[in-house]
Amino acid sequence: MAISDSSSRILAGLLEARTGQQLTMSRRWRIETALSGLMRQRKIASIDELITLLVMNRDARLSDEVIEALLNNETYFFRDRAPFDMLQRELLPAVRNARLAERKLAIWSAGCSTGQEAYSIAMMIAEDPLAWAGWEIEIVGTDVSRTVTDRAREGIFTHFEVQRGLGIQQTIRWFEERGDQWAVVDQIRDMVRFEARNLFDAPPRPGQFDLILCRNVLLYFCNAKRRDAFDRMASALKPDGGLLLGAGETVIGQTERFAADRSMRGIYRLAGGRDADRRATGS
Amino acid sequence: MKTCLIVDDSKVIRKVARHILETLDFKVEEAGDGKEALSFCEQTMPDVVLLDWNMPVMSGMEFLKLLRQGGHANQPKVVFCTTENDMAHIRAALEAGADEYVMKPFDRETLHVKLQLVGVA
């Protein structure tokens, strides 16, 4: 059953108004699949009936549930591997050196979905105990969807989820069986906290983050919203902090607040920040 | 091109795994049980074995133990791929010499990462 243009526009408008995300043409094909579970649960026979209920606006929870269903929550542990290799090899050691005096590390996983990215970073740090012993580590995961941040906080994953991106040694080291599911061990869970928070709200800890990971999130925003998101993230970083985006995402032409780190591929620094100044002058 | 031997008594699983592995540029061979797989390895050692646990004639675990005890040169990497999804089976497989473990169901991304982790993809 094809979804009419007017129905698509109403759903796209709702999603954009509430989350800033655009329901681009390339995502519209999956609207019906995304909403089918909700419609079945709510006994709604067709998209047209759903749209009517949304427009009548008699059930505030329905629009929340529609938004949740339309969001793309795809994620897995150590997604794309390469950025995590770079984090482990270059970025985390550099941050560690820069913070040796205070021994505090704060990382923000923005658009964390069900938490795999934040937990992957926690595992990476926990696997290097000599480097991080005695450090105060704070990893914050945020997502616009309360459903996924609740799930992230639980830290319970299916067989299918727990092995996506993880080697078996990591699975048996950092998870314990919980019935026919897998629960992240307390050591890792205690390093991470999750909040339901829109990227356009005030950041969780303004000016306090050493690193922000915002991967495969900004591609869903229009240019103006993307610029706004970059502003929020700029305000959350320490002056020498770093921003890591998804493959194919860039700051170029999107914002003047960040510039590529010329010595660390894929990392963006605050334009005019301490490190950018130092590198620009070659000092 | 690296060779992967799929050892599974289910034709459907072999077909799905073959499809994924061919998209990952593997040359694929198939065996329906552990004994058949052992015969294959005595002729030509693959780079990696994707191994089911429960099979008729010879189980995956029996095959793995014989393979590892056999003193064969060029031991392949062994990735268990099974519905035995509990910690006891995983630990037993690793102790017997498995290099990785895939819990069914799985997808292409999962298998690809596991094969990368054992150094064959």
Helical/strand content category of chain A: alpha/beta
**How many DSSP helices of chain B?**
5
Work out the number of β strands of chain A: 10
Number of H- or I-type helical stretches of chain A: 14
Order of helices and strands of chain A: HHHHHHEHHEHEHHEEHEEHEEEH
What is the CATH superfamily classification of the largest domain in chain A? Vaccinia Virus protein VP39
CATH topology of the largest domain in chain A: Rossmann fold
The biggest sheet of chain B, with number of strands, parallel, antiparallel or mixed sense and barrel status, is: 5 strands, parallel
Termini separation of chain B (Å)?
10 Å
Would you summarize the structure shown here?
With about 280 residues, chain A is α/β, with parallel strands linked by helices. Chain A is built from 14 helices and ten strands.
Structure, explained:
Chain A has 14 helices and ten strands. Chain A is an alpha/beta fold and about 280 residues long. Chain A folds into two domains: about 70 residues, no CATH class; about 200 residues, Vaccinia Virus protein VP39 (Rossmann fold, 3-Layer(aba) Sandwich). In chain A, a hairpin with a 2-residue loop joins β4 and β5. Chain A is globular, with a radius of gyration of 20 Å. Chain B is of the alpha/beta class and about 120 residues long. Chain B has one domain: Response regulator (Rossmann fold, 3-Layer(aba) Sandwich). Chain B is built from five helices and five strands; from the N terminus they run βαβαβαβαβα. Chain B has a five-stranded parallel β-sheet, sandwiched between helices. Chain B is globular. The model of chain B has no long low-confidence stretch (mean pLDDT about 95). Classes of the chains: A alpha/beta (about 280), B alpha/beta (about 120). At the A-B interface, α10 and α11 of A face α4, β5 and α5 of B.
